[in-house]
Amino acid sequence: MVRWQQATALATAGSLAGLAVRDLVQRKHSVLRNYPVVGHLRYLLEDIRPELQQYFIERNWDGRPYDRDTRSIIYERAKGTMAEQPFGTERDVGRAGYESLVHSTAPLEKPDEPPRVRVGGPDCSKPYDMSLLNVSAMSFGALSANAIRALNKGAQLGGFAHDTGEGGLTPYHLENGGDLVWEVGSGYFGTRTKDGNFDPDIFRDKSGDDRVKCVSLKLSQGAKPGIGGVLPAAKVTAEIAQFRGVPEGEKCVSPARHKVFSTPVELIEFIAKMRDLSGGKPAGFKLCVGSRMDILAICKAIREVGTAPDFIIVDGSEGGTGAAPLEYEDHVGMPLTHGLMVVHNALVGTGLRDNIKLGASGKIAGGADIVKRLIQGADYTNAARAMMMAVGCIQAQECHTGKCPVGVATQNPRRARALDVPDKSERVHRYHQATVEQAAQIMATLGAREPHELSPHMLRHNISPNESRSYAELFTWLQPGELLEAAPEEWAKDWQAASADAFTPQISTYRAGERKKA
Fold this sequence. Notes:
The chain is α/β, with parallel strands linked by helices. The chain has helices at 2-25, 30-34, 40-57, 68-79, 145-158, 171-174, 200-207, 238-244, 264-277, 292-305, 326-331, 336-349, 367-375, 385-391, 413-416, 421-445, 471-474, 482-486, 489-497, 507-517, and strands at 99-101, 117-119, 128-130, 133-135, 161-163, 179-184, 212-218, 229-231, 252-254, 283-287, 311-315, 357-361, 380-383, 459-464, 467-470. InterPro entries: Aldolase_TIM, GltB, Glu_synthdom, YerD.
């Protein structure tokens, strides 16, 4: 026994001595050259820092991207357990930026069934009744096959829509029969020719499937608006290559911009083409708003072409399950609140709002989030990360590494098998049902039965610790057709500069307005 202990000690000492020598001679890490052996402790602590932060340091209300309170309410609703909190709020309700909903002195009873939103304008022959909350765009490839299966089965159980993401319409989206919004991105995956162009024949065949309820063109996404995406060659498996229509083992690129349009008019014409090819199903597009002029240019194009998208999905810059450069995540694109109100007001001001439904996507997690977005102009909402959490995501933020610890965002078969589809689909169903019911309850508390009965007066924002104002007071809300008659000063310059024939503003007009104002 003593000899064994001595041998173990000698072996350990020898290993540490060898490690020390290696640390001293290597040139990559200065810390290890100055502090051999013990310097590894620094890298160990750095590696487990996110877990230490999340589980032992952060408070219930200040974690990012989702705080612990938000994650807990998603998990509890998904499990069907209590999602209530005793002893009052932990939030600082007096801080600047805090928002509150205005309840009615004569609240209504919660409806037996939550309201639904009919999506489909005058040119749509197959409208779809959308839930107030749906699964936002997440592709197979970004998510595992089992995660896609669970989300779609949950959608089938709960009667809500599941957006496919731009990675193609796959058998995993189709096998459980949930309602689908088929999203097509700039790579035209799943509906492309060999040279990477849009293939209308493939699109017609696939979009005719009864499980596809709407078709959507992705212009940009919140996490990385204005850039495309790259799936490294090593990740382009035979399966992904088949579903996306790309060569196996070769780098798969989503371009930054589309080939099918270059002007606002061409965009609207292509959306109309998608609707026709799908057999009259609702067709629309998704974008993260960059400028008000872009939106006004699209509105002018709609009026010029004479047909409109059936829906527009506004993605906030704070959203995004996809990995992106930090600079884009932190600094590019308009947050959902402002982007949503820009699109809503632009459509109202140009007399187009009645025929176009607005979806809102970006950090939707609870019933209050849904109601706030409805007040800000949306007709319905989509959630991505909250749905991932309902499936079992623990916010490990390893989505881009393939090392997701719970099998949600990975293509590793061993990791993905941990996700049990029957169990997780029930969790998705329960989370959706409880959250939508809570949204309907809050609407009734505010005195509203339907989304259109909500108003900006019902949402207040603290502009300082001592002053609170409603959204009706803080922001300009255009009247129907107001831009066509006499654009208010705040909108006039952008309205004049926007063109149906170009996304780039008429700079000479815009700058002339600047000089005149100065």
